[in-house]
Amino acid sequence: xxxxxxxxxxxxxxxxxxxxxxxxxxxxxxxxxxxxxxxxxxxxxxxxxxxxxxxxxxxxxxxxxxxxxxxxxxxxxxxxxxxxxxxxxxxxxxxxxxxxxxxxxxxxxxxxxxxxxxxxxxxxxxxxxxxxxxxxxxxxxxxxxxxxxxxxxxxxxxxxxxxxxxxxxxxxxxxxxxxxxxxxxxxxxxxxxxxxxxxxxxxxxxxxxxxxxxxxxxxxxxxxxxxxxxxxxxxxxxxxxxxxxxxxxxxxxxxxxxxxxxxxxxxxxxxxxxxxxxxxxxxxxxxxxxxxxxxxxxxxxxxxxxxxxxxxxxxxxxxxxxxxxxxxxxxxxxxxxxxxxxxxxxxxxxxxxxxxxxxxxxxxxxxxxxxxxxxxxxxxxxxxxxxxxxxxxxxxxxx
Length: 399
Ligand SMILES: [Cu+2]
Fold this sequence. Notes:
With 399 residues, the protein is α+β, with helices and mostly antiparallel strands. It contains nine helices and 14 strands.
């Protein structure tokens, strides 16, 4: 599964996304405003419905003509404006003095990166081919493919200019970072330039977006956005790659899978889904589950029956659970503890924890999606176990 347009790692990416959405909606409205009357009028004035004598030859209608000229002109200028302003930001190169310039070479079928010399005169050269997955004769996966060391390491909130080229005897490639909405052709014997400034530590995919031969689909790489201090330590060393696993922090993973477009992490705001860091369940959510029961998450215990508590008991329990189960436990919670445990943390992964986003809960929610009173979350079956653990750890440690 390739990283797609649900991830964003630069401010420009958000501008471009906005331009795209505005263009899409305006186009749909304009399309509908032509197509719907067209079909309706064709039907209304169909041949066997109207006599020729009844048809008037209208030569013009000034008001109507002004409206259908002026309104589309203005709306199309709105499209143009958003497209134009985001293109200008994307195509205006920052000053070289304020930027890190990296030389990029694309060739069949790998990306290579060369940095300027560091304090001690050492030049970092990274990159290389993707190691393809190994499969047996039935096509069963024996060993996963890996990016190896083929990554471009950059500091966060810094302008990065890429000078890109391909060897003279190679073919056309295109350097594409979907999460940054950045794409540029890489042409043999010519230098093309692009720049980006990522505001989010994390790991993002780089793909070749120009069909360039047999292994085009394996012409992958990654850009790893590091905190500035970590980048500088690595850059001024002779180490091949930075130590640590920055791209795999819980925060970075939430960004990479596009979770943050629906879930706030740094605030209490309910976007499309609940805020993840601040609290596990709201009082309304708990009351809803008590009243209606639940069986969607795929826990081994199966369904939770409806009506386990009622009236003031239910209110009391819900307030207690939503408050993070701190303070004296209401006696009525006994109705719940047989399955969810005294401490509400669930039992051996067979019933969910009511107080934390532990690994079991995250794994079940991501595997099956979640449909509750707040809304519907799609399933993310391809999020790996390591990623689930990293997210759980991040959400728990930062509460
Ligand atoms: Cu290519």
